[in-house]
Write a structure and sequence with these properties.
624 residues; 4 domains; eight-stranded mixed sheet; 21 helices; binds phosphoenolpyruvate; binds magnesium ion; single chain
Length: 624
């Protein structure tokens, strides 16, 4: 959601809702005319704002001038004594218009349907047909009213100037970072603090100049479409404005509810976590956005659903299956209630058996490993019953400042001590992952630029220090070193050769080390025979592999590749069949309960995932 500047009027309240133009034809003349006729029925001040312009929602020409196309976000704002009712009615009217437009478009386009890419058929029909399908962020089943995210705007001006507000915001983020240091959320607070400490922002002296800065950055991101970072800019803007007395807060019911919104800012998810929220449905987010990561961290039942949704008195959110059932029948409610009870039993049993082996119904053992980022998450993985570490995302150890050789060695050693099976991935920066102290040349397409293993050439000192630290820390213990973003055998051969030279130079052991690659670039699929001759193991990074298979950025705000696409499963099957070396999966797909049976059917016996998912996936596989 975006912040909306309000002209304060005594006794009047300002409420706003963020809507998205979903019709492929945009918000064009005919739907605008219907919308304007509707708004004219109300006496309140009603405005629409988009692209930094605010217009009268009762003026057809003014809305036309916004040239709203599919994917554009608009804020509908109503000012009045009791504006909520009008706001909700108009928001519903708009959503209905968008849905009608979409249906017209689909009818016109029915001929093209044959080309639609099939989603892998891995979900059993459980509920009646009246359901909306999406992608699960965090599992759980809840029954509650569907409530649309609404913001209350307040303007209590104080005497702070911009610089004072900026420094107070930095202090606040610092406090949040310190108090959440043990949780994965800390990195988000740190990222925001680092953004505000950037010299360009530090040089700004007025709110107007800051707003121009934010606008400029968001616009430049729109060209490259890093949605996650867009939300970050909006969040720091919101923080500064709140310090200046201009706040926009989520209005939330105090009884259980399922919130739906296009997306949420990281700070809004934190507020939500303390509310009576039962579940969350996001429309425009992606599994890799900061809002999705936080929902998972706060264990909030949540899904991403692209369809148009309307508020109602009762819905089933079955995030374990990635489904929303608005206005369910009694029969569906009974099914959901049974599933809630069954899920509680499974959760209970999963927890009791989290340290046990995972044997499926056919007697096959599956290793459930953890994706970790630092010592804290390594300990969490241990506590959740991980059979080892399938992916240590080492770049997280490098986050705020460059760690020295000694610091790196110590943290790797401490992590290695905890597990018998451990795979450490070398620094994977580039694309959407930046480190403040690593200088990277500006690239038009960073996801296709200097990333992962390519840093061995572009930033050799950092990588050589890391290899030395890993070898020193392993000290004879069996470990696996994995290179990310490999696209040719030559890249692997060079990176391994560099590691062997370092071992020789510093007299460090390597015979305890296995070398492998992440499969996340499609070129590897067609060179698997050559890789079979040189690598010791593979781990498939389905997050990046999906992005590169469909040429859709994983953080894109409007384009989303289907995470359960049949294409992806076909590729996984092909890779499994052709590989002659141990092969596992460490992308998000490994932790989607709907996908686990299919992955086992293909033959995979090693899956790596976020620690919190481990007990449940183990139990899902046992119950297969
Ligand atoms: C992946 O790409 O699937 C993966 C596991 O790596 P990351 O998400 O860290 O890029
Ligand atoms: Mg990756």
């Amino acid at each position: 959601m975006n912040f909306f500047t309000n002209i304060f009027k005594p006794k009047e309240q300002t409420y706003t809702i963020v809507l998205t133009v979903t019709s492929p034809n945009g918000f064009h003349l005919r739907p605008i005319a219907s919308f304007v006729n509707e708004t004219k029925k109300y006496s309140e001040e009603i405005t629409l704002s988009s692209k930094e312009q605010r217009v009268d929602a009762k003026s057809i020409n003014a809305i036309l001038a916004l040239t709203l196309v599919a994917g554009d976000r608009i804020e509908l704002c109503v000012v009045g004594q009791e504006p909520q009712k009008t706001l909700y009615t108009l928001a519903n009217f708009f959503e209905e218009l968008m849905q009608t437009e979409l249906q017209k478009y689909q009818l016109a386009d029915i001929e093209l349907d044959n080309n639609i890419i099939e989603t892998a058929k891995i979900e059993k029909a459980i509920y009646s047909k009246q359901l909306l399908r999406g992608t699960s962020i965090y599992e759980g089943i809840v029954i509650a009213p569907l409530y649309r995210a609404t913001l209350k705007i307040e303007n209590k001006s104080n005497n702070l100037n911009f610089q004072e507000a900026l420094q107070k915001s930095i202090q606040e983020l610092d406090k949040l970072y310190e108090s959440h240091k043990q949780s994965a959320n800390a990195s988000i607070y740190l990222a925001h603090k680092t953004l505000l400490e950037d010299q360009e922002i530090q040089n700004i002296t007025t709110l107007d100049a800051f707003n121009i800065y934010i606008k400029k950055h968001i616009q430049s991101l729109q060209a490259t479409s890093f949605d996650a970072r867009r939300a970050d800019y909006l969040d720091i803007q919101k923080l500064i404005l709140a310090q200046l007395g201009q706040s926009s807060t989520l209005v939330l019911p105090d009884t259980p509810f399922i919130l739906f919104a296009d997306d949420l800012l990281p700070s809004e998810v934190a507020i939500l976590a303390k509310s009576a929220v039962a579940g969350v449905v996001l429309k425009k987010s992606s599994l890799l956005s900061h809002s999705a990561i936080l929902l998972k961290n706060f264990s909030i039942t949540s899904v991403i659903i692209r369809d148009t949704i309307f508020p109602n008195d009762e819905s089933i959110l079955d995030a374990s299956l990635g489904l929303l059932i608005p206005n369910p029948s009694q029969e569906d409610k009974d099914i959901a209630k049974d599933r809630i009870i069954k899920n509680q039993e499974i959760k209970h049993s999963a927890d009791l058996k989290k340290f046990d082996k995972t044997i499926n119904k056919n007697g096959k053992e599956v290793k459930i490993l953890a994706n970790i980022t630092n010592l804290e998450s390594a300990k969490e993985a241990k506590a959740q019953g991980a059979d080892g570490v399938g992916l240590l995302r080492s770049e997280f150890i490098f986050q705020s400042k460059e760690p020295s050789l000694e610091e790196q060695t110590k943290v790797y050693r401490d992590i290695f001590k905890l597990f018998d099976t451990i795979t450490i991935r070398t620094l994977d920066v580039g694309g959407d992952k930046e480190l403040p102290y690593i200088k990277m040349a500006k690239e038009a397409n960073p996801f296709l630029g200097i990333r992962g293993i390519r840093l061995f050439d572009s930033h050799p000192e950092i990588l050589q220090t890391q290899m030395k630290a890993i070898l020193r820390a392993s000290k004879g213990k069996a470990i696996k070193i994995m290179f990310p973003m490999v696209s040719t055998p030559k890249e692997f051969i060079n990176a391994k050769a560099t590691t062997l030279r370092i071992a020789q130079k510093y007299k460090l052991k390597v015979d305890n080390v296995k070398f492998g690659i992440m499969i996340e670039v499609p070129s590897v699929i067609f060179q698997i025979d050559a890789f079979n001759d040189i690598v010791d193991f593979y781990s498939i990074g389905t997050n990046d592999l999906t992005q590169y298979l469909f040429a859709i950025e994983r953080t894109h705000p409007t384009l989303h590749a289907d995470p359960l696409s049949k294409v992806l499963f076909d590729v996984l099957e092909l890779l499994y069949t052709k590989s002659t070396k141990p092969i596992s999966i460490c992308g998000e797909i490994a932790s989607i309960p709907q996908a686990s049976q299919r992955l086992l059917q293909i033959g995979f016996t090693s899956l790596s995932m976020a620690p919190a998912q481990i007990p449940l996936i183990k139990e899902t596989i046992r119950n297969g």
